[in-house]
Design brief:
Elements (H helix, E strand, L loop, with lengths): L1 H23 L10 H20 L8 E6 L2 E8 L2 H12 L6 E8 L1
Parallel strand pairs: 2-3
Antiparallel strand pairs: 1-2
Amino acid sequence: MKTTAHRISVLVLAAAAVAFTGLAGCASTATQRSTGQYVDDTATTARVKAAIFNDATLKLTEINVETFKGVVQLSGFVNSAADIQRAVTVVQGVSGVRSVKNDMRIK
């Protein structure tokens, strides 16, 4: 009977250790996002792309969008400095955007 109880307690401890290390793997670091942050960033990227698409003066095909921990990076080649400024302004108004890094260039 003690052997069975011992085996069960070892299995429970092993399962707890696996669960704990699995949860620790989901934590964020300076260079990696947690699972929740990844999901949030994906949703933010989608909202940013929709905002750019819905703006009559901007072309979504010219602007690349990437999000990391709420910081949106815009890159690509656009027609004018006014397009760059408009894109930054539009993106700053999107929920979930903490800041905008502008890496767009004029064609």
